[in-house]
Amino acid sequence: MKIRTIVTWFTLFFVSLTIAVSCTPATDVSTSESPSTTAVQMGFSAWPGWFPWQIAEEEQLFAANDVKVDLKWFDGYLDSINALAAGQLDANTQTLNDTISSVAAGSDQVIVLVNDNSTGNDKIIVREEINDIKDLQGKTVAVEAGTVDHFLLLLGLEKAGLSPDDVEIKPLETGAASAAFVAGQVDAVGVFAPFTTKALERPGSKELFSSKDFPGAIPDHLVVSRQMLEERPEAVQALVNTWFDTLDFMNENSDKSLQILAKRAGVTVDEYKDYDAGTTIFSIEDNLAAFEPGDDMTSLPYAAQEISTFLVENGLIEQAPDLDKLLDDRFVKAYAEKQKT
């Protein structure tokens, strides 16, 4: 199972296939307008903050919001990134990092919803003798190159005054990286849940740091193509409405929801419960606050600028993209207004 990738050379290839951006002005959002009968092609993949979309499908919450959705599961998150960039999807679940990387490579994508923040489910796990980030110097770290956990590793190294050259990166797919760490072949590993559970099976292993130590650095989103946004804003609104209806369903039907989430994740209900604290699901209030300008990483406009700069400085993208049209909060605002009536 591949995971949440922030940049890859393959992405650059697929982005080149993207259809040229429409110059049509954005259509005003109307919550009363009925979406087209054409199905929205939407991708999602393995991450606790995105599994709730499975509930939306199984409980027919898309249909309840008058939108037809062809929800496509991707075992490989990278495949979903490429599919959106190539115009094969209208919407996809992606991190802020990935979306910035795709936009930098030429794809016109828009973030319309915050699903969650990673608050501990992305981890750097180390062997027994490593007790400080500076102890990583000269050590071998297994991580899927270009993934969010690679990004997390770089954040930790920078915080400790180290550079990427101070460690030896062993590039492995995340499942393989976890297995290599458990087998004692590397000193540390960057993984996310559920691979964190596997990695911690190594005797003496422990978490060195996690996404919890970098609040707001790894937000996860619903991202749509510019074409989808401009041609079918009513369908985008329906997707956003469905997300919040799904959260309501989960609150009212916790046992049934956990069964669906655990099954989609391929773990037991008890194992899934262990991941809860590591992913903070965003409510409508959280969304409204996140889209506001601010001076720390809890603000999406601020976080986008900081992450863009970080990606350039670390050679993960060639140049910073124009972020002026990356975020569109019209849909969460429209949902919030509807709840007041």
UniProtKB/TrEMBL annotation:
PROSITE patterns: PROKAR_LIPOPROTEIN (PS51257). Keywords: Signal. InterPro entries: ABC_SsuA_sub-bd (IPR010067). Its main location: periplasm. One of its GO terms (cellular component) is periplasmic space. Belongs to the bacterial solute-binding protein SsuA/TauA family. It comes from Coleofasciculus chthonoplastes PCC 7420. This is ABC transporter, substrate-binding protein, aliphatic sulfonates family. Pfam families: NMT1_2. GO terms for molecular function: ATPase-coupled transmembrane transporter activity. CDD domains: PBP2_SsuA_like_6. Coiled coil: none annotated. It is found in: Periplasm. Residues 1-20 form the signal peptide.
